[in-house]
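quick one: thiamine diphosphate bound model?
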Amino acid sequence: MKIIDQFEIPYYQYLDEKGRLSNDAPALAKDTEALLKLYRLMVLVRTIDTKAIALQRTGKLGTYPSTRGQEAVFVGVGNAMAQSDIFVPYYRDIGTLIQRGVKLSQILLYWGGDERGNCFTTNAQDFPFSVPVGSQPLHAVGAGYAVKYRKEKRAVVSMCGDGATSQGDFYEAINAAGIIKLPVVFVICNNQWAISVPRSQQTAAHTLAQKAIAAGIPGEQVDGNDVVAVVYRMQEALARAREKNEACVLEMVCYRQHDHTTADDASRYEQKNVREDEWKKEPIARLRTYLDTLKIWSDQAQQTLEAECSAEVDQAVQEYLATPPQPLESMFDYLYASLPDIYHEQRDLLKGVERESHG
Ligand SMILES: Cc1ncc(C[n+]2csc(CCOP(=O)(O)OP(=O)(O)O)c2C)c(N)n1
Ligand SMILES: [Mg+2]
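yep, here:
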């Protein structure tokens, strides 16, 4: 017997649970402007998240998937991307979308049941939210193929959850990206749950990152509560994608600090105290501790920031609530370039219903 190959999965963390910096931290960890920007964004994301849950509870929003506790993953990914890159999101991606230029009110609009919220105009190359679990890594492969074919220097970023990595689509996507050598970064937000299915029942593999090995591409684990690690590892992966058409898998390890969505009740399956224990690692307080160490933050600055975020979110809520619904017949407007005759009658019928309902 001889060993013909061996593999390692690295784990990256620069800011530990107590906000202490490691010796091998990247320059980003000393870039105060960049750190403050990341901090502000994470607080903004948590503010809109809290508000969205409250809106749902009072009947003003549909089912909503909280991003609580996972802010560093989404904010960090969005921060590392270039505008010219292509983003292929899933439903929990608010922190990234904000940085892709999607308005807060638009995000609320989508979760309020209006598809116009899913039509991103600022980076038109980005894909809409993907709600079918695990489909978007394959879409990213298609986009990556186009980028390579056109010899562009852009990366494609696909986001999915830990549960999605058990789908055949995920394996097919990373396999294709490896063999064709595509500039796709597959990010996994491992929040430890796929609704009620814990990570331990998702796979017998020690890490999700090691799935990359079978696809012949690098895979690594990143502390998803450490925004410095998320940004830096993303930057490195994106550079390799753009320069060398090298795909990779980044497993961001974090914890879902809320029910799966507002339609779920995690107290029925989540063991008591786990969430509280995990909360000690949460990303915002950790960065705050570090900012305090650097002496670039204060209680006063915190109060001002919270007030600014609340005002921005309130403004978005007003815009969202003031958006008139689409006319009923608009459901016919986006399916065909020119509407087949058989639908004209139905469209007119709906128009009539609408006229009547408006008195
Ligand atoms: C193809 C498909 N199967 C099932 C569902 C129902 N569903 C919605 S979210 C979810 C769990 C996904 O978990 P994970 O991939 O870990 O992402 P998370 O929501 O935890 O971020 C499931 C099974 C779906 N949306 N699509
Ligand atoms: Mg999950």
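Residues 327-359 form one domain.
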